[in-house]
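queue> holo job accepted (nicotinamide-adenine-dinucleotide)
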Amino acid sequence: MERIKTDVLVIGAGSGGLSVAAGAVQMGARVVLLEGGEMGGDCLNYGCVPSKALLAAAKMAHMHTRTQAFGITTSKPQVDYAGVMAHVAETIATIAPVDSQERFKGLGVRVIRAWGKFISPQEVQAGDHVITARRIVIATGSSPAVPPIPGLDTVPYLTNETLWSLRQAPDHLLIVGGGPVGVEMAQAHVRLGCRVTVIEGARLLGKDDPELTATLRARLTDEGVTLVEGAAVAALRPVGERIELRTENDEVYTGSHLLLATGRRANTDKLDLKAAGIETSDTGIRTDAGLRTSNRRVYAIGDVAGGLQFTHVAGYHAGVILRTLLFGLPSKAATQHIPRVTYTDPELAQVGLTETEARWQYGARLEVAEFDFAENDRAVAERVTTGRVKVMVAGGRPVGVSILGSGAGDLVALWALVLANRLKMRQVTAMVAPYPTMAEVNKRAAGAYFSPRLFESRMVKRAVGLVQRWLP
Ligand SMILES: Cc1cc2nc3c(=O)[nH]c(=O)nc-3n(C[C@H](O)[C@H](O)[C@H](O)COP(=O)(O)OP(=O)(O)OC[C@H]3O[C@@H](n4cnc5c(N)ncnc54)[C@H](O)[C@@H]3O)c2cc1C
Ligand SMILES: NC(=O)c1ccc[n+]([C@@H]2O[C@H](COP(=O)([O-])OP(=O)(O)OC[C@H]3O[C@@H](n4cnc5c(N)ncnc54)[C@H](O)[C@@H]3O)[C@@H](O)[C@H]2O)c1
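queue> job finished
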């Protein structure tokens, strides 16, 4: 057994752990990094990267069915699913070197490829090593939550960890769960020529603005996805080679493949948290606002901390704790400026409060400024007019923004800056957006906030009238 002493021990080499390790070592700390699975974690291997690569291939196939309106004729695209998955694998392989053991070794991090578990409040065992560290960071991520559906043990099922090894297109993909994973995979597969049925127990993308999700729902249905909402899956069973799914209200759906997209479970099983006196909550490891656990030497970041579960959040958490780990300075993780995007076509983006949340918080003080993509000239030229920007404003400051539309994920970045810096609407109107760009929708939404104040104000009209009389 080798004993190692270090300044910082990071458990998990995914989005959060890698950011802490890279930051800490480059600022002079001794760092040990443990990874029991693949370097790069969920995002690179089973999450963001493969899902966005698959969506890109699906969009390519879809575009070929939409050329006629542009005066271009093409033949029906032929999808080679194995070829599509080769594109997915190649995308992962291209990005992988950035997260690789070699790169981190090169930076000076001691990388140990083994699962870590606490054996005392300061010590972690990983394979043949026992590591004692001044500070320990748990960044072990999450895994697909598998709900206890009767009959699930009698049928084969896919999760985000196994989907990418399929080489033959599913004939009919049943997806349980209409959250971001379910919805992205539904659109990807219907565009690649599969039949797709999504069964959602509550409401599709239930955390998002219902008006915008209604538009997205209509788009998915138009493209051929069968959407079943308000009916949780009650039972599953094999019928010959196929899988039969029964909902709570006794509707029956039969498909060739089953994908579970029913949320996440924090990866804490292997850690023996009790040995270190680390408390958990219903969703993950319990932390304070500075991401410190009930063991003062230990921090938890990213998915395992059980809050917002996104790669950019894991990266943000890394930045928050590096300040404390390396300089001993207090630091807190905020959430109100964190954007999230579902990468359907059109994309659905959110930062800050939705209209419902903002109405609850601000009541009559809330104003909502809106602008439709149909009024954006670039969107008209590109035939991507579906969508809307909604800006929730209280006291002249945006408190939330919801965008459905082409490139919404990129468009919401401006509002993430606005919310992070508590900027006012008038500062957004100071921006000149180039014409003709989609970015103009942001400027026009801000304009929509001010136009009633300027164009419908008697005082403004009276002032202009007066000035005009005196102007030479
Ligand atoms: C299908 C899908 C699509 C997604 N798309 C997006 C997206 O587009 N944008 C976005 O922002 N987010 C997306 N996410 C979420 C994103 O993948 C996660 O939020 C992110 O990976 C979390 O990073 P992390 O560092 O907390 O955990 P991870 O990246 O999962 O890393 C944790 C690592 O810890 C390792 N580990 C676990 N236990 C131990 C142990 N005991 N010892 C050693 N190592 C251990 C694991 O093997 C893993 O490599 C998606 C998720 C899924 C499932
Ligand atoms: N674009 C992105 O950034 C992106 C993409 C995918 C995933 N993610 C991350 O991964 C997380 C997990 O995504 P997800 O979609 O798996 O989870 P989720 O929790 O967002 O959605 C799961 C859905 O499954 C439904 N459900 C659960 N059990 C069910 C049952 N038995 N029958 C029918 N419906 C059931 C729930 O009502 C819920 O709507 C997301 O919250 C997000 O943080 C992000």
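queue> The radius of gyration is 25 Å.
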